[in-house]
Amino acid sequence: MSTYILGIESSCDDTSAAVIQDQKILSNVIANQEVHKNFGGVVPELASRAHQQNIIPVIESALQKANISKNQLNAIAFTRGPGLLGSLLVGTSFAKTFAMGLDVPLIEIDHMQAHILAHFIKDSDTDIVPSFPFLCLTVSGGHSQIVKVNDYFDMEIIGKTIDDAAGEAFDKAAKILGLPYPGGPLVDKYAKLGNPEAFKFSEPRIKDFDYSFSGLKTAFLYLIRDELKKNEHFIEENLNDLCASIQHTIVKVLLKKLILAAKHTNINEIAIAGGVSANSEIRKRLIEMQAELGWKVFIPKFQYTTDNAAMIAITGYLKFLKSEFTDQKAKPYARSINR
Ligand code: KG4
Ligand code: ZN
């Protein structure tokens, strides 16, 4: 008999619901919030209000697309944290009420673990999943981590950012260029037409497998400020090259530490997860590394990179198998212990 689980994700600015049948995703509906575009970042109060408007239609649509009734659900999985408290509260409250009403177990999910465990979705028999232990470069708007994944729920963070996350570096660079939020996908788009060697930025010197991106952001800001003084059209005239150069530097920094970590741990199964794993340059470089370094690389399908509930549903399924259920008293948490 199959297990059906509804996953709910509301940690930041995307409201998402997904239905999974064992390890196969039947539906994955995402409502993006347009309200933040002109603010240069997510406005927490607007985000939680938009979640309230979106959550019921998104869940109804996920059930409809999966072609199942709510009474067939075996459990409700929801993101408990980390994220914006007001946003998390919407998903958490809905999940608790729905689980209670349907009299099915409630399963709390850690958003960062879920980004990684998205690799265990098996939409078809040809989908290959990583074997333990593997390293996962988890890079999103709020986190940059190198995680040693020993088992589904046994993960060690062996490297992390000491300041900005990789996604934040993309978004802040985009903001300096006058591009709307979230800027990562736009930098990626313009970079395709630019020269990655046009502008050089010094790389941070940080110990072990840790990252730092705030110096790069400042260097980028100063370059633009100084060049604009000489030529007010500097950004328009160099947009593609600026995007290609900053993207190239961020990707180079990310991969350098990942290579070090792979050597140090002697692990060559390498995965990438989180919103920045949608980036075309990092995807391309990782594929090249299979041949260059003998890595076996796992790159998530595009729809499972940025925030989505499919990753919550698969993690819910893996917890369901272990009967790891959550009490109705569970409250959301804003921060993980490590970034
Ligand atoms: O995982 P995610 O959707 O949300 C968080 O958990 O933070 O990641 C969002 C981040 C944003 O910073 C966004 O700009 C970045 O992922 N991102 C990208 C691309 N697509 C999304 N960064 C670079 N290139 C992309 N194609
Ligand atoms: Zn995320």
Strand content: 15-25%
> Which ranges are low-confidence, i.e. pLDDT below 50, for 5 or more consecutive residues?
none
Report the bound ligands by name, code or SMILES: 5'-O-[(R)-(carboxyoxy)(hydroxy)phosphoryl]adenosine, zinc ion
Could you give the order of the helices and strands?
EEEHEHEHEEEHHHHEHEH
- Order of the strands making up the biggest sheet: 3-2-1-4-5
Let me know the number of strands. 10
Rough outline: globular
Number of helices: 9
Terminal Cα span: 39 Å
Broad structural category: alpha/beta
Largest sheet: 5 strands, mixed
Mean pLDDT: 96
Estimated helix fraction: 40-55%
Could you characterize the architecture of this molecule?
- The chain has helices at residues 44-66, 85-102, 111-117, 166-176, 184-191, 214-230, 234-265, 280-293, 310-321, and strands spanning 4-9, 14-21, 24-32, 75-81, 106-110, 134-139, 144-151, 154-160, 269-273, 296-298.
- It contains nine helices and ten strands.
- 42% of the residues lie in helices and 19% in strands.
- The relative contact order is 0.19.
- A five-stranded mixed beta sheet has the order 3-2-1-4-5, sandwiched between helices. It has a five-stranded mixed beta sheet with strand order 8-7-6-9-10, with helices on both faces.
- Zinc ion is lined by residues 111, 115, 140, 274-275, 307.
- The site of zinc ion has 6 residues, from helix 3.
Provide a brief overview of the structure:
With 339 residues, the chain is an alpha/beta fold.
Topology of this protein?
Elements lengths: L3 E6 L4 E8 L2 E9 L11 H23 L8 E7 L3 H18 L3 E5 H7 L16 E6 L4 E8 L2 E7 L5 H11 L7 H8 L22 H17 L3 H32 L3 E5 L6 H14 L2 E3 L11 H12 L18
Parallel strand pairs: 1-4, 4-5, 6-9, 9-10
Antiparallel strand pairs: 1-2, 2-3, 6-7, 7-8
Helix pairs in contact: 1-2, 3-9, 4-6, 4-7, 5-7, 6-7
Bound molecules: 5'-O-[(R)-(carboxyoxy)(hydroxy)phosphoryl]adenosine and zinc ion.
Zinc ion binds next to α3.
